[in-house]
Design goal:
By secondary structure, the protein is an alpha+beta fold. 34% of the residues lie in helices and 26% in strands. The structure holds adenosine-5'-diphosphate and magnesium ion.
Length: 377
């Protein structure tokens, strides 16, 4: 019998999307074919502690991390595995727990989706699902992301970056500049967050002051964007490494004025935001949005997967790239897998393909020389 592939699934994390991550990871673990894969669940607490002994999913769900046990990955690739940590008075004993062939990080937001965990996995020499350090980090910073997308000639809304320091030192000057360039309405956002946390729609100067103050609570970089009129929210799933493919597009029908935190996670039942799959848009627009999704994916050097989110003006029909989520929501009812299901790739096959892509990308990288050898002759 062939040995099974050991897949570490990492979930939880130091992020506002901790609970969403647990839900996504439960679905991923349930979909991994037990004849082919051995699942190694790895939890990260809200404080950033890694746990792996016993049942880390149960421990995090119950809010009792102590019922599992501390674990760590060492940056030295010679170990390539998960370690159990045991406190012995002043000392901490590191004990081999299990080797890992590949890791599926199911972490949303900062300290998970932003290149930090990806950097650790690169150092440790373990293949992993999804984008590498660069793609993850660029997708996480909304300001840098938009600069890169703009530089590739792809459509993005007009935006202005305000540093928190500047906002605090010269507020009147900042307000005048924003009113002179963008006008109203605008959206204010912390550059490095997700789940709509800290995002406001501002209709006047008082609203803009509030929006910038709110964004400044979360980040030192504040992004201000022209609001897309009567914005429709179109999303496309992308899958692949060097030859990515795009799914059919879907549309979100937010339950509120915009797709804010409550519309994403709190509104339930009849009040919940809706998903339309496929999006009710023309065949031409469908092709355009799929093409743009792949171009944006390539522009930031993504790998494995991403959900590409667009804003479509209900007034002008203009389409804008809004963001790429490199670890999108992954429950069975999340947009990313549902779009693939509608395009012909069922959830278990999707997870299987992502692991294949992780191994492929790692093998491709292993071809690179890591020291300089002058050519002979
Ligand atoms: N420029 C914009 N014009 C219109 N609506 C916007 C704009 N920017 C953001 N929104 C609304 O705010 C939501 C959250 O913004 P987004 O940039 O996607 O941040 P997050 O990473 O938190 O999802 C969007 O889904 C959309 O409803
Ligand atoms: Mg979004």
């Amino acid at each position: 019998m062939a040995t099974k592939i050991r897949v570490g699934v990492i979930f939880g994390g130091r992020s506002g999307e901790h609970e969403v991550s647990l839900a996504s990871a439960r679905s991923v673990m349930a979909a991994l074919d037990p004849d082919k894969y051995q699942v190694v669940p790895i939890g990260i607490t809200k404080e950033g502690g890694w746990i792996a002994a016993g049942d880390p999913m149960q421990a995090l769900t119950a809010g009792d991390a102590g019922s599992s046990g501390p674990a760590a990955l060492l940056s030295d690739p010679a170990y390539r595995g998960l370690m159990r940590l045991e406190e012995k008075g002043q000392a901490v004993e590191v004990v081999r727990m299990t080797q890992l062939d590949v890791i599926f990080p199911v972490l949303h937001g900062p300290y998970g989706e932003d290149g930090t965990v990806q950097g650790l996995l690169d150092l440790a020499g373990i293949p992993y699902v999804g984008a590498g350090v660069t793609g993850s980090a660029v997708a996480m910073d909304k300001a840098i992301f938009k600069d890169v997308i703009r530089a590739h000639g792809l459509p993005v809304v007009d935006s202005q970056l305000v540093m928190r320091r500047e906002w605090e030192a010269r507020p009147e000057q900042v307000l005048d500049r924003l009113e002179g360039t963008l006008g109203y309405p605008v959206f204010t956002k912390p550059a490095n967050l997700g789940s709509s946390v800290g995002i406001c729609k501002c209709h006047d100067r008082a609203g803009l002051v509030h929006g910038l103050d709110e964004a400044a609570r979360y980040d030192r970089k504040l992004l201000v964007e022209a609001a897309v009129p009567q914005a429709r929210e179109i999303e496309v799933s992308v899958l692949g490494n060097d030859d990515p493919i795009a799914s059919l597009p879907g549309e979100i029908l937010p339950s509120r004025e915009f797709y804010d935190y409550a519309a994403k996670y709190l509104d339930q039942g009849e009040k919940a935001s809706g998903l339309l799959i496929p999006a009710p848009i023309s065949p031409e627009l469908t092709e355009r949005v799929r093409e743009l999704a792949v171009q944006a994916y390539r522009a930031i050097d993504c790998a494995g997967m991403a959900r590409a989110d667009f804003l479509l003006s209900g007034r002008s029909g203009e389409l804008y790239v809004n963001e790429l989520n490199t670890i999108p929501g992954f429950t069975a009812i999340s947009m990313y897998p549902k779009l693939w299901a509608a395009t012909g790739i069922a959830y278990p096959e999707l997870v299987d393909r992502l692991i294949g892509l992780a191994l492929e990308r790692h093998a491709n990288r292993a071809r690179n020389k890591t020291s300089y050898q002058p050519e002979e002759g």
